[in-house]
Amino acid sequence: MKSVLHKAATRGHADHGWLNSHHTFSFAGYHDPERMHFGVLRVLNDDQVAPGRGFGTHPHDNMEIISIPLGGDLEHKDSMGNTTTIKEGDVQVMSAGTGIQHSEYNKNTDQEVKFLQIWVFPNKRNVEPRYDQISIRDIEKKNAFYQVLSPNPDDEGVWVHQDAWFHLGKFESGASDSYRIKKEGNGVYAFILDGDVEIDGQKLGKRDGFGVWEADSFDLKSLTNSRVLLMEVPMALPRING
User: What sequence ranges are listed for the domain Pirin N-terminal (predicted)?
Assistant: First the structure.
């Protein structure tokens, strides 16, 4: 097994007043040539948006964009005609494909909204843009990982144009679970949302990131009450089709 550790305090940071953002990988004004991506996982931004503020309409193309709210209400509008609100317990995906414009705003005027914005390089270029959103409240499990994203439209969770699988887990202190890699050549980036855990001997705290590859599986033990996001992705940037 190979691994890389990114402690929470080593992330890039930008405070724009209305937006307080931490960047696990190089983004905007934060550039670290050693932290450009983890396989096809390109962006992992931990954002806090002030009440009533947000990201105005802006374009994306040829990227799979996943949003996972951690608190508050995030209003989404896009050029496909979608207007919706996502909140903790939801997962949103947008395949930008040939091009899409969207905006994201904190719907509330009295509290921050906190969410993860994740970008994954697709394995197909110039697909038709698409949007999807699910609630995970009916599929979440206790003290075990459960799937919220995959490459298969018929599988559990949202889907993306990439051989990627995301799992969430909410664990009580002392609970444990194992994760087996879905596809040979993939790695897994674990991001600790809350609490303290141990992955194959490596202790991790809140907002730490830990990537593993060249492994078939690994074990996680929760040292306190915790929440963990696992992102399994191809480690090689593929030749793009389409």
Answer: 11-120
Q: How many CB atoms lie under 10 A from the CB of residue 206? A: 15
CA pair distance 62, 141, nearest whole angstrom? 33
| Region label for 17, one of left (φ > 0), alpha (ψ between -120 and 50) or beta (otherwise) | left
pLDDT digits (tens, 9 = 90+) for 162-171: 999 999 999 9
Residue 24 predicted with pLDDT over 90:
yes
For residue 65, give the nearest of 90, 38, 86, 94 by alpha carbon.
94
pLDDT digits (tens, 9 = 90+) for 197-220: 999 999 999 999 999 999 999 999
CA distance 176 to 199: 10
At 194, list the tokens: 């809350």
* All domains in the chain, ordered by first residue: 2-234 (2.60.120.10)
In whole angstroms, what is the distance from residue 83 CA to residue 200 CA? 42
User: 10-17: long-range contacts at Cβ-Cβ below 8 A with a sequence spacing of 24 or more?
Assistant: 11/46, 11/207, 17/50
Closest Cα to residue 190, out of 169, 174, 163? 169
Whole-model pTM? 0.96
Average pLDDT, the chain: 95
